[in-house]
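Pipeline run #58 for the internal structure catalog. This entry was flagged by the ingest filter as a single-chain record with no existing model, so it goes straight to prediction. Upstream metadata was stripped on purpose; only the residue string is passed forward. Reviewer on rotation: M.T. Logging verbosity set to normal.
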Amino acid sequence: MGQGRNFIGVLQSNLLMPGQVAEKMEAKKLNKTLLLICLALLVSLNQAYAKCTDRRAPGMDWSGCKKTNKMLDKSNFTGSRFDGANLSMSSLDGSNFTDASFAGANLTKSSFDGSSFTGASLVKTNMTRASATNSQFDDTDFSKASGYRAKFDRVTIQNSKLSKSEFSRASFVDATILDVDWSKSELGRIDFSGAQLRNVSFEYSNISRARFANAKLNGVDFRRAYTYQTHFEDVDLRQVQRLSQLQLEIACGNANTLLPEGRSMPDTWPCSE
């Protein structure tokens, strides 16, 4: 009789109530789900590592990869992706970036001299102190890009977007800039000396202390641009648009500055050094 009671007790201790059975099944499902997630992450990491080791070629994807201090001159990266990649302090001179994407990429102190960026996306790209002299930018999107002290001397930029960008102290000496939206941007102390600008909008942009020495301006829109000590010495302003007398009053010019119709030379010109 005693043995029977012990058997019944053991049996009862190993039986699970309906609620306990459900909890145990849920725990198994959860463990299985977590295992599948871990496996998916592992596969994703392996794929990401694999693409970062791919050799340079048209159409490749280095998104999120670290490629700092690399020598990649004269490469063909047509249609390639560098979104979120770190290419800082690398040399990519003479390369083809047609239809490439650099969204959010770090290009700090890198060199792209003599390269083509036709149809490329440089949205939110960091080009601080980068160099892209003698390069071609056709139908390029620089929206929200930054290029503090970057060098773009003798570049050609046309049919492109540079709105809401930051290029303070950047150099565009002798550049050709045509049909460009450069509105709502931070361009303090930018240098356009000797540049040709046609149909460029600086609407609502900060161009304080910018230099336009010997630049040719045609159809350039200065509506509500901030022109504090902007240098217009020896510049022909007769073909610009919506440049107010107040903007001229806070800017710098001289007797050789040719003014738009209805505007007069401020008494404060020339500016004191």
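catalog note: Residues 18-52 form the longest helix (35 residues).
catalog note: Residues 2-48 form one domain.
status: ready for reviewer M.T.
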